[in-house]
Design brief:
The chain is an alpha/beta fold. The chain has one domain (6-180): HUPs (Rossmann fold). It is 45% helix and 11% strand. It contains eight helices and five strands; from the N terminus they run βαβαβααβαβααα. The chain has helices at 15-27, 44-56, 67-71, 99-113, 136-150, 165-174, 178-184, 201-222; strands at residues 6-10, 30-37, 59-64, 118-120, 155-157. A five-stranded parallel β-sheet has the order 3-2-1-4-5, with helices on both faces. Helix 2 (44-56) links the parallel strand 2 and strand 3 (59-64). Helix 1 runs parallel beside helix 6 and helix 6 (165-174) packs across helix 8. It binds zinc ion. Zinc ion (ZN) binds at residues 188-190, 192, 196-197, 199-200, 202-203.
């Protein structure tokens, strides 16, 4: 039997999923990317995703998931709601209920179509901001469900699951992608590429990790 070494990466054009894309390129012979368009605050994300996959010569599919904004009026899908961090354990206003459940299910359907066995997502429990569908236990449960539903042997990979932002930068560096990720990706809720606006929660989280990683690098050079 031929070894199936093809992977589909759930790809948003952000730091995390771009790092996952490089990770996938290292570990699999063939990689495709899928981006979900759901009337994000910034259709800019989709543009960035297109450019990055183009740069890397990766086949890229964009799937329309705009029905999500019909179901869930929140800060990522609607322009009239401000991005706020969750207070007192409440979920942040960027939460889209069921997003990863839906995205990973569609990614698996696509994987079946293109004959890929592996699906990669950048979800992470360490900085998970309370999103229940970023948790490891959810991914493991969904993996079983997807395999049962399609009678397949998919493997869901989560290379960032236990990494914090600093360690995600370290991984990008290890993959030879540090500058690429720093300059070309879009994490900022205000749609500013690279180091971003510096003010929104996503930028603060990203910068925090980057500063920590750079400080550690400096320390390592000195000793
Ligand atoms: Zn920002």
């Amino acid at each position: 039997m031929e070894k199936n070494n093809k992977a589909v990466v759930v790809f948003s054009g952000g730091q995390d999923s771009t790092t996952c894309l490089f990770w996938a390129m290292k570990h699999f012979d063939e990689v495709e990317a899928v981006t979900f368009h759901y009337n994000q605050r910034h259709a800019e994300e989709v543009e960035v995703a297109k450019e990055i996959t183009n740069d890397l010569g990766i086949k890229h599919e964009i799937l329309d998931m705009s029905l999500l904004s019909q179901l869930t009026p929140n800060a990522l899908t609607r322009n009239d709601i401000e991005v706020k961090e969750g207070e007192d354990g409440a979920l942040p206003s960027t939460f889209v209920p069921g997003r990863n459940l839906l995205f990973l299910s569609f990614a698996a359907v696509m994987a079946k179509q293109v004959n890929a066995k592996h699906v990669i997502t950048g979800v992470c429990e360490t900085d998970f901001s309370g999103y229940p569908d970023c948790r490891d236990v959810f991914i493991k449960s969904l993996n079983v469900t997807l395999n049962l539903s399609m009678d397949e042997q998919f493997v869901l990979h989560t290379p960032l699951m236990w990494l914090d932002k600093k360690e995600t930068w370290a991984l990008a560096d290890e993959l030879g992608a540090f500058d690429f990720v720093r300059e070309k990706t879009l994490t900022c809720y205000n749609g500013v590429r690279g180091d971003g606006c510096g003010e929104c929660p996503a930028c603060k989280l990203r910068k925090n990790g980057l500063d920590q990683y750079l400080a550690e690098q400096k320390g390592a050079q000195r000793s």
